[in-house]
Amino acid sequence: MKEKILKKREGFEGQQLIVVPRKISADFLTQDPITRQLYITDIGYYPKARYHYIKRPSGISQHIIIYCIEGKGWIEIDKKRVDVLPSQFVIIPANTPHKYLSEEQEPWTIYWIHFKGEISAYIVGLILQRAKNFRLHLTYNENRIRLFEDICINLQKGYGDDNLRYVNMIFNHFLSSLLYEEKFNHAGQEERQDIIGQTITMMQEKLDQLITLQEFSQYAGLSVSHFSAVFREKTGYSPIEYFNHLKIQKACQYLLFSAATVKEIAVRLGVEDPYYFSRMFSKLMGMSPSEYRNRNKTAEH
User: Fold this and answer.
1) Which residues on neighbouring strands pair with residue 43, listed in sequence order?
2) Global pTM?
3) In 3D, which of 269, 265, 211 has the Cα closest to residue 239?
């Protein structure tokens, strides 16, 4: 039986809709070194969008994000239909057949964005790795909505070069809030760190000491092998490599903002052999401590 669908031809009360002129996209967005990586082509907000229906048998050339904050609907992507509920967002890859419909009794309220760019397909791929049937759950966050509203407000101000760069750099942050929701939700908030986070804090407090892998694992309350595996999974580095990175980070500060010799800096960082310290520094920074100091020394006035 063929489904009966009521379609809304007019707009929705309180809606926002901004379409970036295609000439702007061609003349600037696809040419500028910043914006050509990732840029918005269309953006909108549809509150309580009853009978909102779209059907695109061949898809469109842009990727689409639909973020539902209220009400219900469904989206069919490449012949797979998923229900869309509050606090869910759906990603529709470019050139993918799709259609969607807002529920009549509880129509959805959605934020949506169309976007393109050299790295857009890669970002969509990252999102799809986390998504189930093109859909992810999101915790409602006012800061994310503010990012969206900031994009809209500034696009309404015109299409100057600086404004377009600013808007699309915000969009990068907006996408990061979707892809790395946990980090975004905890930004600026006090939180109980996991054991790896606690260990890293301990590393930062003990940069003047020489600490073994066994001591790190003992602090974490894990076996050496399990601790090493979990630490690498969390950070991408072994515990000792990470600790050395923090030491070199601190060494750079000493070299730039103090008159301490290389030997004195090595001692401050718990490394008794200054030659070993210099080799470690050179390996990570691509130059010796002295070269680093000379290249980056603040000019005296």
Assistant:
1) 18, 113
2) 0.67
3) 211
